[in-house]
Write a structure and sequence with these properties.
By secondary structure, the protein is mainly α. The chain has 38 helices and no strands.
Length: 768
């Protein structure tokens, strides 16, 4: 039953969140990244303190305290047992009940107000089940004597029936002894629970594992660590504090090793309680296992409640208390414990102790700490060497020397940061890419702003075919799930920004995107096809001849306008930067959060001189120049909108100035400039229209609501003009033949000269 499984009360640290799921980024503050203490996983550290227990026992408990679901796990476990047919074997009355009758009776029995009502409402259920539910109802009501009678009744049933709930009955008798202050009897009962379960008695509610926590609580009460309302009536005293605390810790460790998350919370609480009491702490550290628990608690301090963290620049009293109690205590330590002690010493600022503890290490954690110490001494070469050795050791060391997978990921990331500082940019990307799901923002920064486009292209070409990452677990959030494909798209967009469209095409995704709200009903197509259309439009805008008739230029204008339209509508996918300024990684919804707007990172203010100095010390030799060279043009948010504006304005160069198409493409050019937050550019385009274009009735909304250019009318503009001119000329031939002949020759010469001047002064098409 849900009320039967109650362990040590544990406080779950709160978590704060705001905005979208921005990924953690190492380059946001690279000085802190490489100098911060190593933060290990408490769950991993705890489970490595004891060997795997023998015999299988199930742990049935709430896995996510924020998502309990409609019913407790123990209730679901009992319901599954009821429908499995096990009850029908031991109870003929139950065998006669259909599943539709059985479960309602079980629910009714649970809702009863007293033990007697349980037997009425649950008539037909097996006797041990009814006795257990009746006892649980009385226990919940605080009627301990009545509850005990029901649980004891289970012990008197025939073996076949008793077996169904004997584990649960003994567990609850232990809880009753506990409540009455009969701690020695409670301890014996909890030990009996595990013995029966290990001997094969059914334990669908996982009470054998829960009994480990309850027995540990008995020890902590007797040791004076926990205050409870029970009065200890046993003869055992709390004089042997060290032994009782050590025994409680071992019980919790076994409970954790058997899969209990509640045990992890309890161990955190025990560590916190011991650290808060100097007397208890000094006694507890004499036990090697308790000492190792306290060290694990401190070196895994990152990720606990933010309310426990000290203010910036202040010493953490928890860390300092454990460091004083543990590091100042003489005594031998094993290899893996030495590494953890070194991590503790580094976290406490005892760098001299950390240096001594890591002098001869060859284990991942020790080498990692030694690398950080080398960087503190400004020995960059030794730091790079030890970071690399630590990462290599994670794959080669025995299991007892390893760190958890999250710490390995962090180690890999730090190694990448330190490699950037010595100019090993491609190596940094190679290190980061296997953990791209965690550090995609850093991958994007190196790939997009630090590597040259040819370095990135060579790296991408060396990657295996695209594959998706496994789905995230727990609280993990992955910004990208197919990093190879994401990096290929990043490269394609960068190649487009460099004007290398033909090279870009093979790297675009072939997947058809889901239509956005504005595209519903439209035929979506892969971005690779959009890119091909963009390339083809720019190609068409290039003339194959050194000259052409003005009316032949309209096709070039139309092609440029097509390119401009694609750049505006699909610019994020075609050429947007993964990080700032466009932040394609977040579909442009935010101006930051992925990648870096500056090598200094987003969290370092330029007026913090000391901080800036530390950051610059970790820059690569030519990182800033590479960063500047790789910037989009223009280097503004949604830069492709300005590209679209320029292309639309360039289309006007090929159109008759008095045509509707000329005015329309300039209108769109102004609108795209406004979309790109460049009002001065839009104003210049408008002035161009006013000074050179013809009146249009819609021009009052210039740069706002723009019509589609009438390119067909533009194609016939010059022929219409010439035809009209010749019509007028024909009427003058009879009256002034010589003058007309001279005029025709001069007109031809002027037209040829105009075409030549037009060719000489025309701007190349943007993006072409």
């Amino acid at each position: 039953m849900g009320w039967a499984v109650i362990g040590v009360v544990a406080v779950v640290g709160g978590a704060l969140a705001c905005g979208p799921f921005f990924p953690w980024q190492l380059f946001d503050d690279r000085a802190a990244t490489v100098s911060d203490p190593v933060g290990l996983s408490f769950a991993f550290e705890v489970k490595r303190l004891v060997p795997p227990p023998t015999g299988e026992l199930p742990a049935v408990e709430v896995r996510d305290p924020y998502d309990r679901g409609p019913e407790p796990e123990v209730v679901l476990a009992e319901r599954a047992e009821a429908t499995s047919g096990v009850w029908a074997v031991v109870s003929p009355a139950t065998a006669r009940l259909s599943p539709d009758e059985l479960l309602p009776k079980l629910e009714a029995a649970r809702r009863a107000n007293d033990g007697k009502a349980v037997f009425v409402d649950g008539a037909g259920l097996p006797a041990p089940v009814l006795d257990y539910i009746a006892g649980a109802v009385e226990f919940r009501a605080g009627r301990l004597e009545a509850a005990a009678k029901y649980f004891e009744a289970i012990e008197r049933l025939p073996p076949a029936e008793r077996r169904l709930r004997e584990v649960a009955a003994v567990y609850m008798l232990g809880r009753i002894h506990q409540q009455k202050g009969e701690l020695a009897a409670a301890r014996r009962a909890f030990q009996s629970v595990r013995a029966k379960a290990l001997a094969g008695a059914p334990d669908p509610m996982g009470l054998a594992v829960a009994s480990l926590g309850e027995e540990a609580r008995v020890d902590l009460v007797q040791a004076g660590v926990l205050d409870v309302p029970w009065q200890d009536s046993s003869e055992e005293t709390g004089d042997n504090t060290k032994m009782l605390i050590g025994r409680a810790v071992r019980l919790y460790l076994e409970q954790a090793a058997r899969g209990s998350d509640i045990a992890l919370l309890s161990l955190r609480d025990v560590a916190s309680l011991l650290i808060a009491d100097d007397g208890l702490l000094s006694e507890a550290v004499a036990d090697s296992l308790v000492r190792r628990l306290l060290v694990a608690y401190v070196v895994a301090r990152d990720g606990q409640s933010i309310y426990d963290e000290p203010l910036p620049g202040k010493e953490d009293p928890v860390v300092m208390a454990v460091a004083k109690a543990v590091l100042d205590r003489a005594g031998p330590a094993s290899g893996d414990e030495i590494d953890r002690l070194a991590a503790l010493a580094y976290r406490a600022g005892r760098y001299d102790v950390a240096e001594k503890l890591t002098e001869a290490t060859s284990r991942p954690l020790g080498l990692w700490i030694r690398a950080k110490l080398a960087l503190r001494r400004d020995d960059r070469a030794a730091a790079v060497r030890d970071w690399g050795a630590a990462l290599k050791a994670t794959a080669e060391s025995p299991a007892d020397a390893k760190v958890d997978s999250s710490s390995e990921t962090r180690l890999r990331g730090e190694t990448a940061v330190i490699n950037v500082s010595v100019g090993s940019y491609v190596e940094s990307l190679r290190l980061l890419f296997p953990v791209a799901g965690t550090y995609w923002g850093d991958v994007a920064y190196i790939a997009e702003r630090v590597l040259t486009v040819d370095e990135l292209k060579a790296f991408v070409d060396s990657l295996p075919p695209s594959s998706k990452l496994p789905p995230p677990t727990g609280d993990e959030f992955l910004l990208v799930t197919a990093p190879v494909e994401s990096l290929r798209n990043l490269l394609a967009r960068r190649l487009v920004r460099e004007g290398r469209l033909d090279e870009a095409l093979p790297y675009y995704s072939q997947e058809v995107p889901r239509p956005t709200t504005g595209e519903e009903g439209a035929q979506a197509r892969p971005i690779s096809e959009e890119a091909r259309a963009y390339r083809d439009a720019l190609e068409a805008a290039r003339s194959g001849w050194p000259w052409s008739w003005p009316w032949q230029d309209v096709s070039r204008a139309e092609a440029l306008f097509t390119a401009a339209t694609l750049a505006r509508k699909k610019g994020m996918e075609l050429m947007g930067t993964e990080g700032p300024p466009d932040v394609a990684a977040l579909d442009g919804m935010y101006s930051g959060g992925v990648g870096q707007a500056s090598p200094l990172g987003d969290y370092v203010s330029r007026d913090q001189e000391d901080k800036v100095k530390k950051e610059r010390a970790l820059f690569g030799p030519d990182e800033e120049s590479r960063f500047n060279a790789s910037a989009p043009k223009p280097d503004i948010r949604f830069h492709y909108r300005i590209v679209a504006s320029d292309q639309a304005a360039a289309a006007a160069d090929f159109l008759p100035q008095r045509s509707q198409a000329y005015a329309a493409v300039l209108c769109w050019a102004a609108r795209y400039a406004i979309d790109g937050n460049d009002q001065p550019r839009a104003d210049r385009i408008y002035r161009r229209y006013v000074s050179t274009g013809a009146y249009q009735p819609w021009a009052k909304a210039f740069g706002g609501t723009c019509p589609q250019p009438d390119f067909e009318a533009a194609r016939s503009f010059w022929p219409r003009q010439i035809t009209g001119w010749f019509d007028r000329l024909a009427g003058s031939v009879g009256r002034h033949p010589v003058v007309v002949a001279v005029a025709v020759v001069l007109a031809g010469l002027m037209l040829a000269g105009a075409i030549r001047l037009r060719r000489a002064g025309r701007r190349p098409a943007p993006g072409a």
